[in-house]
Amino acid sequence: ARKNMREEMKGFGVARIANRYGTDPCLPSFEAGRHVPVLGLINKTSGAMAGMDILSICAQTPYYQDRIFDILEVVRDQRRGGLLDVFRIELCKARNEAKLLGARCRLISGGGDGTGSFALFILFLALKAVPSREADGFGDTGNGFIWTDEEMAEGFPALVQMPLGSANDFANILGWGQKYPGDKKLSCTSHTWSGRMLGRWFQFAIDPASSVVNFDIWGIMPRHGETVCDFKIAELSGPRGPTPNRKINGQRHVHLKEAGKPVPLFVCLYFSAGFGAYMTARFQLNRHKTPFKNRLEYIRQGSGLVLERTPPEMHLRLDKVEVDCEGEPYFPPRRQRGNRGRGYREVGFYNINWQAHALHGADRAAFSKRCCGRRPPVNFCDGKLDMFRWKFASLLKNPGLRIQTDKKSDMLLRFKGGRGRGVFFQWDGEARFAFSPIGEDFHIFIRQVLQIPVVLGPYRDRSLTGSVDNGKPVAFAFCGEADEDRLLVRQRICMNVAGGLDKELIATREEIERVGFLMPSRAAAAPPAE
Predict the structure, then answer these.
(1) Residue 175: which of 471, 378, 464 has the closest Cα?
(2) pLDDT (average), residues 146-172
(3) Can you say whether the dihedral through the CA atoms of 245, 248, 250, 253 is positive or negative?
(4) Exposure check for the chain: N or C terminus, fewer CB within 10 A?
């Protein structure tokens, strides 16, 4: 599997136009005992195919050719002796090498904003115990994984986010750049310059001087006292273009299909329901090959939402949506007075202080302080959600794109829209449609599930991140108030990598149609016969 991976990676730059980084390897030589051991999971299709070029360069360079993997091939090749096994072996070797240095190994996650969660999925998949392979070292250490809790705390890799997507909010807030390494700002920029910038980026990634800090990971979990979620998810369907909604009897309707992966569990960056989620769902049907065209597509879809009528499968804006935080009403504001959510466009939270090249958050304050004072920004390691709610008038009240936020420890979204209705939500740039398969109220509950280590890059903007020292030792940890809460996190993670959450959360065609939602005909959805 390792040999096949190398040969395939070497051929990436040959099968298409010339490698943007040139033909000669440009990565820094790795010096054992000096540099921090590193692995990589890179999406070859990301960054206008920059991921493919980077994998090709890695395949030609000693050390990196054994440690940098195509993330898509790793998840596909889970057979005995396949790429997942190879990744697992290299992961354990890197952990042991780093331990001898008194350091923590690192994992480069190369792709869009959702790749961070994908990389965590691969890590847990590699670390999940396999009782039938105990003789191979895959036995359960008592927590469902092949590493003990102590080994996880000390040896879980620190994440290095490589910006290969459209927005690259995750990489940007951690200081690793907003565009892929070596992105050509001018058409006359040479391959040599791009290669030098890529090498410089890798140099920071393996440099022991690069800071490692804690980072909060939130999770979509069952409510307190429950073991499963009470909602199902589907995905928007329809043709590419200004609107995916098809007309029936003069009215446009939302059409759904069975959701693909990923299923919602980890929330690394942000979560919201409403305008942004619906826009993201429509964008997913119209994705382009370059970040610039993708940004234009977001604008087109957002404009369409403002001008179109609300489809009958949804309520107006956030009508019938309620949110509680820490057991207290949060949304709509002044709910006890009868206020409804229809006046608001979006509700959710930030975990990082950057969204879509534009939006930031800061603590709620009086108008004078919002205009002239300095407020604490969204912080990714304080153990708090930075909740927000906004409508278009909020841009005047803020003023600007710095959204007012409220620090909370959890969030419970309740949808009371009835049978045949649902709401779009998005997490880390992935959008799905949530509904009740039995037509009753449903809930989306979010709390902190993990603390992971991340590596800060050279371009971190301290005015956006605030303090990154939360007063705790840098370590991996499962989170929860009580032992049973932490146990549930472990169980949900193991269910996720085994496919159990797919069965719990992804609605079948029958469940979607049973409550009255429209789907493409089976004939239209089926591939053409050969």
Answers:
(1) 464
(2) 95
(3) negative
(4) C
| Integer Cα distance of 338 and 331 in angstroms | 11
Give the containing element (helix H, strand E) for 445: strand 442-455
Query: In sequence order, which residues have a C-beta less than 8 Å from that of residue 326 and are 6 or more positions away?
Result: 408, 409, 410
What amino acid is encoded at 358 in this protein?
Answer: A
Closest CA to 170 of 347, 392, 430: 430
> Backbone phi, then psi, for 519, in 5-degree steps?
-135, 155
- Six-digit token pair at 312? 């009958």
Look at residue 525 and tell me whether its pLDDT is greater than 90.
no
Predicted pLDDT at 258 = 97
CA distances from 413 to 139, 416, 440, 479, 507 (A): 38, 10, 14, 21, 19
| pLDDT on residue 2 | 60
Q: How far is CA 25 from CA 21, 28, 199, 219, in A?
A: 8, 9, 9, 40
User: How many Cα atoms within 13 Å fall on the side-chain side of residue 300?
Assistant: 18
With residue 110 as reference, give the H or E element that holds it: strand 106-111
Q: Are 282 and 241 in contact (CB under 8 A)?
A: no
Encoding tokens for residue 201? 């980026």
Instruction: Determine the average pLDDT of the residues in 234-263.
Output: 95
47 phi, psi to nearest 5 deg:
65, 40
pTM of the model as a whole: 0.93
CB atoms within 10 A of CB 522: 8
Rounded mean pLDDT, 114-132 = 95
Predicted confidence (pLDDT) at residue 530 exceeds the cutoff of 50:
no
- What is the rounded CA–CA span in Å between residue 250 and residue 307? 16
Could you write out the DSSP letters of every residue in 222-265?
Answer: PPTT-SS-S-EEEEEE--SSS--PEEETTEEE-EEEE--SPPS-
Determine the average pLDDT of the residues in 450-473. 96
C-alpha span between 18 and 57 (Å, rounded) = 12
Separation CA 162–CA 39 (nearest Å): 12
Residue 246, both tokens: 């098809």
Sheet holding 270-274, edge to edge: 255-258, 232-237, 430-435, 423-427, 270-274, 346-350, 385-390, 402-408, 360-363
Round to whole Å and give the CA distance between 172 and 360: 13
The pLDDT confidence band at residue 523, using thresholds 50, 70 and 90, is: very low
pLDDT in tens, 340-399: 999 999 999 999 999 987 899 999 999 888 888 889 999 999 999 999 999 999 988 888
Residue with tokens 């409550």: 515
Q: What are phi and psi of 146, to 5 degrees?
A: -85, -15
Assess whether pLDDT exceeds 60 at residue 506.
Answer: yes
Beta-strand pair 270-274/346-350: antiparallel
**Tens digit of each residue's pLDDT (9 = 90 or more) over 44-81:** 988 778 999 999 999 999 999 999 999 999 999 999 99
